[in-house]
Every structure is written in C-alpha cells, then in structure tokens.
Amino acid sequence: MSSKPDPALLPCSPLQQVNGFAYFPRMLAKIRLAEQGNLWEELQANLGKGQDAWCVEFLHLPTGYEGLKSRVLQGGSDEEILDWCQSQGRPLNDTDRLVWNAFVTKLGWNDHLAAILSRRKEESGLANRTDILTLPHYIDVDEGRAS
Length: 147
Fold this sequence. Notes:
Layout: E1 17-18, E2 21-22, H1 24-35, H2 41-44, H3 51-58, H4 64-73, H5 78-88, H6 94-105, H7 114-123, H8 135-142
Antiparallel strand pairs: 1-2
C-alpha cells in the first residue's frame, strides 16, 4: 500500500477471533472506523466486499452487509453482534468455525487470490518476502502488526 497510516485508522488483524470465529472482529472494526470517518482511505473501497461479503454470506444473514452494518452502528460488543448474526442467520457449530477459519486464514495461499497477494506484495515492495504466503499475513505485515 502507498503509505503507512496512523495505527488508530486501522482495524485489528484479520486473524483476530471472537468466540472462535476469525476475521469477524476486523469487519466490525472497519464498519465502526468508517462511520467515525477514521478508516484508512485504502480500506474504504472494499467495505462490504471480498472477505466482508463472504463472512456475511457464511453467516446466512438475510439482511446482508447493510443489515449487519446497521446492527453494528446500534452498538454492542463483538460477541453480542455475533450472537445477533447467529439469531438472524444460522448458528455456528465447531465444524462451521473450523471450516471458516481454515478458509479465511489461508486466503492467497495457492488459491483464487494468489495473484492478488502477489500483486499487493509487489506494490508494497514486499515481493522478495517469500515468507508471506497468505493475505492475512500480508495485511498484518503491511499494517505494521507483524514483521
């Protein structure tokens, strides 16, 4: 990415979990930061798309991303919002969490997003970093949480 933002403008790691469900806290943090006008500009274009959309679809939310956004802006903890999602869509069991976490934590590793990971690494001057194998790892390095 072009320049490093103030850490206060960044959501948490895509690897962070709430109740054993990865990525969800990052999606909620992006919604909150955007509403405050504080979300790093480079993250704004993908709100509700990509991983956000896949997460909402995985939860089977009938109201979609906009319904989730509305609920987040009403307030509450990540745990409360995940409980709401499960009451609106479907409850998650341990296998659901295992499948989702395996998917979302390995994005970019020999899959349909590998070319995007490669492009982002190149644009960020990280093309020589052969240890960065997934998009979540790239994001954590790019956003300064990992080296």
